[in-house]
Specification:
13% strand; 167 residues; alpha+beta; CBS-domain; two-stranded antiparallel sheet; globular
Length: 167
């Protein structure tokens, strides 16, 4: 009679779907920057995904508090007279729910962003993943369960994000 050693379950790679924030505030390109700034201020957040005008949740851009300030400065107009569409970034890096946390961290580092929208295959917004989510997850894991590499990944990502942008 032959016996086999018990197989160890290989721990599945952590995925974005485990950490993403599903309740996400959004705006539309036709909203005023004043409306977007109000949402950011009252919700104590720094970024708003911009979704399509047609009422779908399709991601078309992203606007940050910095984008709003720079739009007002460079266009010389007040926030109620500027539209989100004039200030939003259209080239938005995103990930999917099945993206690994390591892949998401690398995407954040490469794009020098602290947050990634989480979308499905047709760019429907499902939630957001932040560097803070990754840091909390890394801190939660004891060193014996892979916490040290996770913490190093967060450190590497933060260092890349805060490096001066190439112009």
């Amino acid at each position: 009679m032959r016996t086999h050693a018990p197989r160890r379950k290989k721990e599945a790679a952590s995925r974005v779907e485990q950490l993403l924030t599903k309740e996400v505030l959004v705006c539309r390109p036709s909203d005023s920057l004043n409306q977007a700034a109000q949402i950011l201020w009252e919700s104590d957040i720094g970024v708003l995904p911009v979704v399509a005008e047609d009422g779908s949740n399709q991601l078309v851009g992203i606007v940050t508090d910095r984008d709003i300030c720079m739009a007002a400065y460079t266009q010389g107009r007040t926030l109620p007279n500027l539209l989100v569409g004039s200030a939003m970034s259209r080239d938005v890096k995103a990930c999917t729910p099945i993206t690994t946390l390591e892949e998401a961290a690398h995407e954040m580092a490469n794009a020098q962003v602290r947050r990634l929208p989480v979308v499905d295959g047709s760019r429907q917004l499902l939630g957001m993943l932040s560097l803070a989510d990754l840091a909390r997850e890394a801190a939660r894991k004891p060193a014996s369960k892979g916490g040290r590499p996770a913490l190093a990944l967060v450190g590497h990502t933060l260092a890349a994000i805060t490096s001066p942008h190439a112009r």
